[in-house]
Predict the structure.
Amino acid sequence: MANVAVVGAQWGDEGKGKIVDWLSSRADVVVRFQGGHNAGHTLVINGVEYKLSLLPSGVVRQSKLSVIGNGVVFDPWAFIREVNAIKDKGVSVTPENLIVAENVPLILPVHSALDKAREEAKGAGKIGTTGRGIGPAYEDKVARRAIRLCDLTDEAVLVEKVDALLAHHNALFRALGAPEMTPADILDPLREIAPQVLPYAAVVWKQLDELRRAGKRILFEGAQGTMLDIDHGTYPYVTSSNTVAGNAAAGSGMGPRAVGYVLGICKAYTTRVGSGPFPTELKDEIGELIGQKGKEFGVVTGRKRRCGWFDAVMVRQAVKTGGIDGIALTKLDVLDGFDEIKVCVGYRLDGKELDYYPSNAGAQARVEPIYETFEGWKDTTRGARSWAELPAQAVKYVRHIEELIQAPVALLSTSPERDDTILMTDPFAD
Ligand code: GDP
Ligand code: IMO
Ligand code: MG
């Protein structure tokens, strides 16, 4: 039985939430394996909108098990806020249908304070992070000084670890001219939140192993996208985790063969939020129009997303580096009505042509896109639920993208609504 990993193939916000929600009807378990509450995943079900950041997008289906894996960085206060918000919408969330890996590292107030102070100090050169403390929390994990969820059960260990953590962070705060923190600043809020979050703590690797052996279907939900991956993205303008499907296993406590099919999500154009290079960015009225039609504003920070044409070179690179088997192409409807549509098929750099995106930050900023131009379509694709409903030019556009990125389109999304989705290949099929 193939388990499926859903990952972003661009710079995030490709529509992963919608696709994970749709696919989760075919799964038993939905697992988040990286990132944190920097993610913003939107689901629209019968006109009702749900915005999820830390909770897996399967949570709305109540009967499915939602799992936050060890590869996530976990803010306990954000978690409780989100659980309460979704409960207010009438969704039942309990430790029966939502569990969190006991070895997940915590995001603490020191982390968001440091994230913001660093961004401020960088000024114009800032990364444009979400300010949620994601980078500093991953730094502490790798430096082996993170406080983990399981530490909240052991007061003596917790006190010792907070002292060690502050020895490091207060030195940084002094250097940044920011106020220092006392152990009580960390310990008191942690002691208060612990009884609320600990009921969700679980030995996730063990439960996933049992579920897998019982033949249950697992859907891994990625956050961000390949171009924000710490290794394969536009470094240093990236997030601090591996966003590719290769991380799904390590980030949930399973072996590499746990992932059978990798579904990459990409928009029929490109967006990016935050700083960093973006070869096909449109800083003109076409970019504005795409942003307006696509409602391109960030879910987490409300920032306006930068918009541009589809970059087939970049998505092909995401297909290769991430082992993507098929694509879910979203927001095709946003391109309805354009006279012509462009697609980047190569780059020009210093008089040479490139068929890949280079790693060097200077080269990434300087490459110029080589475009192919397509005739647009006048009829609408919005809300189409079958291939036959699509205008001929839209079909041509999709087919050409498949060739350029060297991966088939398995799903097509034509509106934010759950059921406005066309299935070509079932990723869960054996
Ligand atoms: P994620 O971070 O990848 O889950 O994506 P976001 O939720 O941040 O952003 C995608 C946005 O596009 C959301 O507002 C979705 O409701 C919306 N969306 C998803 N698929 C489609 C689609 O096919 N057409 C249109 N017009 N909107 C879509
Ligand atoms: P979803 O899951 C789009 C971007 C930020 C910034 C960079 C680093 O909704 O696709 P961070 O706070 O992670 O240290 O910020 O990454 N970023 C995202 N952009 N979608 C996301 O998540 C993002 N999560 C982080 O804007 O440029
Ligand atoms: Mg998003």
